[in-house]
Design brief:
Layout: H1 10-23, E1 32-37, H2 46-56, E2 62-67, H3 73-81, H4 83-89, E3 96-97, E4 110-114, H5 115-120, H6 122-131, E5 134-138, H7 158-172, E6 175-180, E7 196-199, E8 202-205, E9 212-217, H8 219-224, E10 231-244, E11 252-258, H9 268-275, H10 279-303, E12 316-320, H11 324-336, H12 340-346, E13 347-350, H13 357-366, E14 372-375, E15 388-393, H14 400-408, E16 425-430, H15 433-445, E17 451-455, E18 475-490, H16 515-541, H17 549-560, H18 571-583, H19 600-612
Parallel strand pairs: 1-6, 1-9, 2-4, 2-5, 3-4, 5-6, 10-16, 12-14, 12-15, 13-14, 15-16
Antiparallel strand pairs: 7-8, 10-11, 10-18, 17-18
Helix pairs in contact: 1-2, 6-7, 16-17, 16-18
Keywords: Coiled coil, Endonuclease, Hydrolase, Nuclease
Coiled coil: 557-584
Region (Disordered): 445-474
């Protein structure tokens, strides 16, 4: 595989050159590759680069890509199916989003699974790893804590269970590619498998450890190459009041306290907790909503579109809520600000409590509508939705990795939205000291200076009705209101080199069709054809409608195809089953069930029906 004609970012070029050296036998001592890429910088292409070269060179047979959440499996499939990168690298590899059924690859070049799935069936995935020389890709590896002495057999927390299940896969893999947007954990623990050294009494990843290759891509580099967008922070200040002592005797009213007051202090988190559940949340959400509406109207005007035309690239709003109850409340608020028909079309919610959460995420990512998504944590990490232009950060979490991932949902360049210079991320957030400290660290890291531009905002009316909600912190939120909004644009500073244009997706390119979606469609067609034959034959044989004939016909089809159920068939086998069903009748093969007591009733009824038919 020669160097791709489509331009790569610097970290993607570095990985391409490294795996090319591995393929030539020039870097045989490397078994582990760590890619520390700023969120939004383009990690999803790295497994495609590595797998296409290493499988092509015969160094590995398959790729297994493990992601932290189910919603990311489809994106991993799409990365391999992307027609532009297929042409750029000249590869024909495909992976499928697998569950814990046998043969997860189904004849493809590998599969994508989740931490949770591996923890639920570790033996299945370890067996696959032992049967094939495997490139193991672990996405967002910082989710996996290193196991302390004795913890490999015991710890009960979920993250430790993931580490225990994945550790044998690390050991069995031929090569490992570890991806992360941050190399620190909120709990301060080391990350599984990474080598460490001690610097001034603190452990830090050892980037010069034997057998390791480390590829870094900082926010400054990503901005210089125009791989991510600059961020415009809209900091909304406010006041909050609450009751301390919960619902016990001796409650005391606290506040009003300013969110931006000196701190962090003992009142910062209770004030923030209250603000996110009362009038302040409504005010911040309204600012984000109207900013998104203005952006979409301006882009429609620029394109000469009418208000009802649905096209890509107009900009979308992502709302990150502190909990599911608040998410439902925000969802209702947003819908109330729109006409009913538009509200049903444009606003969706994706939380673990919603049955259609994954469908909502997919629609938000891949279609012009919906334009607004409310979530808690499902969409904050790894969500590849370049049309997100505005984020309403209504979350109480203040850990740096979490916040970086959240703002990165809006920093992806949207290929449908025009020139890079006309795009930027807009993040609305409470103006509390903890968020301000996080923002200051980002400014320092990307060598930027904030340029504040104050815009006065009238004080919003306080929430009239207190929310009857008590928390583990022993407070009951009463009311809050917004006081003022200020903006600060973060742009590359003088230390950042001149930007180079990177790959832009062609708006005319067809959307990739992931293998799992192809399989689902084929399985549905096979099921429909089996059911249709059963219905027709029930009428002909005068069998009672709703009887077990479809079940028997499915069993016949399974016997005809090497005792494989539809769920276990590859796409090619499903296509073969469809072709067979178009030419043959399952009733002519019921003899395959003879001798099996489970299907004796069906066979008897078939022959009885045949005798009753007119000659």
């Amino acid at each position: 595989m020669s160097a791709p004609s489509r331009p790569l970012r610097s970290h993607q070029r570095s990985l391409f050159e490294l795996v090319a050296a591995l393929a030539r036998g020039e870097a045989s001592g490397i078994a582990d590759i760590l890619a520390a890429v700023t969120p939004g910088g383009g990690k999803s292409l790295l497994p495609v680069i590595a797998a296409s070269k290493l499988i092509g060179a015969g160094l590995v047979d398959r790729v297994v890509w493990v992601v932290p959440r189910d919603s990311l499996r489809l994106q991993a499939e799409e990365a391999f199916a992307d027609p532009a990168w297929r042409a750029a690298f000249g590869h024909a590899l495909a992976v499928r989003a697998a569950d814990n059924a046998p043969d997860p690859s189904r004849g493809l070049s590998g599969y994508v699974t989740t931490y949770q799935a591996v923890a639920a069936a570790p033996a299945l995935h370890l067996s696959e790893m032992r049967r094939h020389r495997t490139l193991l890709v672990v996405d967002e590896v910082h989710h996996l804590p290193a196991l302390a002495d004795g913890e490999a057999d015991g710890a009960a927390n979920e993250a430790a269970s993931w580490s225990r299940a994945l550790l044998p896969l690390f050991r069995e893999a031929r090569l490992r590619l570890l991806l992360s947007g941050t190399l620190e954990r909120a709990d301060g623990r080391r990350i599984l498998w990474l080598p460490y050294r001690t610097v001034e009494g603190a452990p830090v990843p050892d980037i010069e450890a034997p057998g390791w290759a480390v590829i870094g891509y900082s926010r400054a580099e990503a901005l210089a190459e125009k791989a991510v967008l600059p961020v415009n922070f809209g900091a909304l200040d406010g006041e909050a009041s609450w009751l301390e002592g919960g619902r016990t005797a001796g409650q005391a009213r606290v506040g009003p306290h300013r969110l931006s007051g000196p701190g962090p202090s003992a009142t910062t988190r209770p004030a923030l907790f209250t603000a996110l559940r009362t009038g302040f949340a409504r005010d911040l959400l309204r600012e984000a909503f109207h900013a998104t509406r203005r952006l979409r109207a301006e882009r429609r005007r620029r394109l000469g579109l009418g208000p009802a035309q649905a096209v890509r690239g107009l900009g979308k709003l992502l709302v990150v809520a502190p909990d599911q109850a608040s998410a439902q409340s925000y969802h209702a608020m947003l819908q109330a600000w729109m006409p009913e028909e538009q509200a049903q079309r444009d606003v969706r919610i994706a939380t673990s409590a919603e049955a259609d959460a994954h469908a909502a995420l997919a629609a938000f990512r891949l279609t012009p509508e919906p334009a607004v998504l409310v979530t808690v944590a499902m969409a904050y990490e790894g969500l590849d939705a370049p049309e997100v232009a505005v984020v309403a950060a209504l979350t109480h979490i203040r850990s740096r990795p979490w916040l970086e991932q959240m703002i990165a949902r809006a920093t992806r360049v949207d290929p449908h939205a025009g020139d890079y210079a006309d795009q930027h991320a807009l993040v609305f957030h409470p103006d509390d000291p903890l968020f301000a400290r996080f923002r200051a660290r980002i400014e320092t890291e990307q060598a930027t200076a904030t340029r504040p531009r104050k815009r006065p905002v009238g004080a919003a009316s306080p929430e009239p009705t207190p929310l009857a909600r008590e928390t583990d912190e022993g407070i009951v939120p009463l009311e809050s209101n917004a006081l003022g909004l200020r903006y600060a644009m973060l742009r590359p500073g003088p230390a950042v080199a001149m930007a180079r244009l990177g790959p832009q997706a062609d708006a005319a390119e067809p959307a990739p069709v992931p293998p799992s979606r192809v399989e689902r469609a084929l399985r549905a067609r096979v099921a429909a054809m089996v059911t249709a034959q059963a219905v027709e034959d029930e009428a002909e044989l005068r069998l009672p409608r709703g009887g077990p004939l479809p079940h028997r016909y499915n069993a016949v089809l399974k016997r005809l195809f090497n005792n494989k159920s539809r769920a276990a068939m590859t796409a090619e086998e499903l296509e073969a089953a469809l072709a067979w069903l178009e030419r043959n009748r399952l009733q002519d093969h019921l003899h395959l069930l003879e001798g099996d007591a489970r299907y004796a009733w069906s066979a008897r009824r078939r022959w009885a029906g045949a005798e009753r038919r007119p000659g």
